[in-house]
Amino acid sequence: NGLTNVDHPTQILADLMTIEEHCHKPLNRVKVVFCGDIHNNMSYAWMYGCAKMGMHYVAFGPETLMPDEKIMADARSVAEETGGMIEVSAKPDCLLGADVLYTDVWASMGEEEQFPERVKMLTPYRVNMDMIQMTKNPEVLFLHCLPSFHDFDTRVAAAWKEKGLDIREVTDEVFRSRHSVVFDEAENRMHTIKAVLLATL
Predict the structure, then answer these.
(1) Which H or E run contains 100?
(2) CB contact set of 27 (below 8 Å; sequence gap of 6+)
(3) pLDDT along the chain (201 residues), means of 10
(4) How far apart are the first and last CA of the chain?
(5) Nearest partner of 102 among 23, 1, 25, judged by Cα
(6) Of 72, 84, 154, 164, whose CB has the highest number of CB atoms within 10 Å?
(7) Residue 31 phi/psi, 5° resolution?
(8) Is 44 helix (H, G, I), strand (E, B) or coil?
(9) Nearest Cα to Cα of residue 95 among 62, 137, 66
(10) How far apart are CA 145 and CA 198, in angstroms?
(11) Are 25 and 54 in contact (CB under 8 A)?
């Protein structure tokens, strides 16, 4: 599976590599909080990835976008064997102790008509500096699978801003901060895909 609507495992390989590069603790002691649309393929990929690596995963989003129950059950079954933990929360106290904050765009390509509804639901889950501070971890990392709406420079974001909608899933302040390792993460897509190709030859 390179990428589908319900999983994105090739992205998770790059994400895990990035965490290993920048987080100075074993993966099985890392807490990842995915913020926003916890019903999408990246949220599910993180569930599977954290379950397999024995990590602590929290899906932080609105109750109206709860993850698929079967996918959660499958991930939790694997996590029981590895010592991992899979949680879902709509409350910001779940951010405490996070080593990684992760988010994705609020509407995937081809689903732009969903932005008005998604903005209403997901604005409280936009990753900003207040959220960074709520982790109480000065070394917390910000990751994103990219591309991202983090400012209004893009034509798409600017067009929605003119309609009175802020579609940014992360603020520019966070995206360009020392916490952000998104470009190392993007580079690691190349290295991990090469590893996948090598493993399958």
Answers:
(1) strand 100-103
(2) 16, 19, 20, 53, 54, 55
(3) 89 98 97 96 97 98 95 97 98 98 91 93 98 98 97 92 96 98 98 96 95
(4) 16
(5) 23
(6) 84
(7) -110, 125
(8) helix
(9) 137
(10) 23
(11) no
